[in-house]
Amino acid sequence: MATIKDVAKLAGVGLGTASRVVSGKGAVSPATQARVRSAIAQLDFRPSHAARSLLSGSSQMIGVYIPVLEGSFYTPILRAIDTELRAAGRHMVVSFGAGAGDARRQTIEGIEFLLARGCDGVLVASNTLTEADIARFGAQQERLVVFNHVYANIAAQCFTADHVLGGVLAAQALLQMKHRQIAIVTGPMTSADNVDRITGFLAELALAGIDTGALWRRESDFSTHGGWSAAAALVASGAPFTAVFCANDEMAVGALSYFQHAGVAVPGQVSVLGYDDSSIAEFSAPQLSTVHIAWQDVTLSAVRFLLQRCYGLALPFEREFPLRLTWRASLAPPPANALDPDPDPDLIRQTP
To answer: Which domains are seen in the chain, by residue range?
Structure first.
């Protein structure tokens, strides 16, 4: 395989001159450029990634940190990131939570790993860091962009949806269907976006005169197994309920699976509402009604902002992301109510 030294020798120029032609940086006369390019073509020279990095001072790689490498939520997000980066001539390196330590320590180590590998910037999907953690990255924090959380230190580098409004929309959907005995399966209450959606949900129910303190509630872990376990505990509790709101789609699908296992008809006896509108929602049985979060738009905006910051690329991005309900078969009125099951979209508040 030909090297840059071979190119310089064949072209009759110094190594520095050949390097300047390959990198496109520095002054080289047209005649000399032509000789170097001719040598490159004759030798079929292709600089390695490491060589290009040395020549350009940039790895052309973007790091991505995600908490877990499983489930249906992060897979389409990673696919969208990779597609956008490749379109811009860049590549992705992924790190995820693993090893010893809590989620915060894993996030710090994951970001440090990506920066140490020469990534020009890092997209972070984590809400476990503190403002002090962000500050400790020093000048490197300028190359961090955060997905689905806002850190005050770098608020302009953060992209997320309005999860309080998402919780409001979920409550309005159930209220529109005349549900008042509602069970709630939350995600981890250490997760800020989960807290926001549950806060919005409970506040809207309270405005409708529902005693939210009397509602059955269980904290889970955003997994399908967690949804199954929560639904099993709900049925075993004997608490009255006609609907279940799960704080993400994976838990909602786990709950649907348990209800089918236990012979509880959805939506004939119980309605189930999810959150995110991830790919799993469309293929559950019955298909899952859910709050649609524009994760594709959030993802692309975060990636484009980072590309602009790292490479000066003029790419469009958004700051506001509309939310809506996706109505499917898992949501209907309580069995005692003979109501029109078709929702009226005008009754559901949406962002502009």
So the answer is: 4-56 (1.10.260.40), 61-159+296-311 (3.40.50.2300), 163-288+328-347 (3.40.50.2300)
